[in-house]
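Give me the 3D structure for Sodium/potassium-transporting ATPase subunit beta.
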Amino acid sequence: MAKEGEKKTCGQVLDEWKEFFWNPRTHQFLGRTASSWGLILFFYLIFYIFLAGMFVLTMYVMLLTLDEYKPTYQDRLATPGMMIRPKGKSLEIIYNLDNTETWDAYVQTLDNFLAPYNNSVQVMNNDACLPDQYFIQEDSGDVLNNPKRACQFNRTMLLNCSGIEDRYYGYLDAKPCILIKLNRVIGLLPGRDGISPYVSCGAKKEDVDNIGELEYYPPNGTFNLMYFPYYGKKAQVNYSQPLVAVKFLNISLNTDVNVECRINSNTISPQSDRDKFAGRVSFKLRINK
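Predicted structure for Sodium/potassium-transporting ATPase subunit beta (289 residues):
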């Protein structure tokens, strides 16, 4: 008898659920009539259209306050970062002199990176500027001086690291070239009194005897002032970032050499409280034979 009672109770529950989904007597679906469903769906339709409209209006008003050529608010870095090319895996440049495949990728990377710096491209797109002074291009009140011009940085300025006379950038004869660039910062003025910032490289303490002699191109490893200030990608579409090439002339073979390069300037702090790697870049160089 208990089992029959249980079956009857289950049947009643099932009937109640069926009636909840669709009640043929009241024509209700999930407890609501068609008119009730219509009203509630209409309410939510209007509600979400209103929310979407508020969002679009807010975004429109916000965009009206922005300048498409430069950031409205800029948390300018006191000391910009640096990067190398080729950068290898985890900033490690390791290759074997006798195995072309181990260094061919580095050469290809430098070829591709320097293609926009070909003299023909630079002459066509950029200006020959006066060195050792900022190339400032101010706006005339509300009239924007855009697009702004940019100074030529010709590939030949890298001399023995240009890939023109030595198409292997020194990797074939254990005298590799490393290119260094300073990260772009809008409005940065990295020197005063006509003194350009420059790059200096050295080995970590344990590798001082293994790094050998270095050469810098352009001479003294300078980022000339004429390439500053930078006005932004959209305002200065043809801007060519200045480079410094470092050539290792007699680095020790079959040895890990940990190198650190840093920017030196009379306006840029040598270190940053927020980023200990600002203004410097460290990498490992190893040439096996």
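The first strand starts at residue 22 and ends at 23. Let me know if you want a second pass.
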